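Hi team,

Filling in the usual template for the complex we talked about on Friday. All components are listed, including any nucleic acid strands or ligand strings, so the model treats them as one assembly.

SUBMITTER: L.P.
PURPOSE: interface mapping
COMPONENTS: two
RESIDUES: 496
SEQUENCES:
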Amino acid sequence: MLPDEMRIVITGIGLTAPNGNNLSEFREGLLTGRSGVSEYEIRYFGKTLAGICKFEVTRHQAKRDARRGTRAGSIGVYCANEAIIDSGMDWSNVDRSRVGVYVGVTEHGNVETETEIHEIRGYDYDTSYWSHHHNPRTVANNPAGEIALNMEITGPHYTIGAACAAGNAGLIQGAQMLQLDQCDVAIAGGVSESIHTFGIFAGFASQGALASHADPTQASRPFDRNRNGIVIAEGGCVYVLERYSDAKARGANIIGELVGYAMNTDATDFVLPNSERQAQCVRMALQRARLEPEDIDIVSTHATGTENGDTLECAALREVFHGSKKTFFNNAKSFIGHSMGAAGALELAGNLPAFQDGVCHATINVDELDPTCELEGLVLNQPRETKGVNYILNNSFGMLGINSVVIIKRV
Amino acid sequence: MAPEEIRNAVLEILEDIAPDEDLSSLDDTKSFRDQIELDSMDFLDIVMELRKRYRVQIPEEDYGQLASMSSTVEYLTPKMEHITA
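RESULT (copied from the run log):
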């Protein structure tokens, strides 16, 4: 086992999801089958579906700053403040120069660029009407920088651009920076404002990968034979990470320990996943945690509701977990859609209360299981009681073949 | 637009730029910056919004004229008097 000062633990969680603005609301939604997907309309693209967050922006941010900044920034500010409150840390006495902010993003800047082009269209594309706020809003570090500004954090801050693996990647980055002694507290996770860019809807629609359904709450249906694509969602989830030695010394409530993680790359396609590389990534995380597949109680899958993505991930999981009798598999996107840069962090968070309640939430909207997605232990439609949860493994994959896996242990 | 209408137009812009501020007791003779939290980017918002809403172009060398409400209205009056409110 690693020495206490090299062990990284989660001591606080702040989140906003389309079906809850804190962990208890989100968890309750996941256990009761409450969807966060609703009808949505965006300029140029028109009517569609999305997971929309309804958190109170001004709870931790002045209206002026919300106006000057970005939606991703506001999501980050809300989540980071909530996470610090949840950690019980004496924030007013924390040395802010020793706090690092590491926020995963799938993309950033598209919302603002689209808005400005839309604006100057009304002025015959005269660029003198282009906002002076455009650059500070669109620099890639914006969401992390807005958190630092809001919370007067003077340690390092930046975003991690990692497509839809970004939430896990943010968490991993935070842990590494603690181990490298670059900070004493890491505010780490992921955010997404993507529902505010028409381009992401149009792009997935052109790709034939955007979900539609007469009932919005049934549109996101990973593993179901009649799935027809992704429901895009906004969201955010930020963790407070500390070294185990520091957390123990201050008597913190330890939510879980990051005992293993891995990232790798398919190097095979811009869009299509690679089952072999995904399985390799899961195995690497297990190996680094010194665990066997049968040690894992819950696997939180990445599956987004696309035929290729779901099928290839299930093939990877069958290969790794074949023969493991106690491992359950679930999926949070079936409730809230795909929250992009937030997905990895948010979907993990929704499972962490299982350390206490021993329940594995389900994947909903599976009326007819696609045979290519059959997994022994796949928890369909209703939550499942377990014999106790000690390890949760969280998958998060993204375009350009980026794969990430984290494993959290009950402490 | 009459000076009072121009004042209202500037006030509307300020309400958007500084939504946390109470502008009801704004002293027209005192500098904006002494009364409300406005930095250089906010100040550029005033210029941009006048351009967008009223097509008023304010050259950079004249920015100093927008220090207080009374100096702003005085500066804008010849530029906006032809505009119908």
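MY TAKE: The interface with chain B takes residues 62-64, 67-68, 119, 123, 128-129, 131-133, 136 of chain A (CB under 8 Å). Chain A has a mean pLDDT of 98.

Thanks, L.
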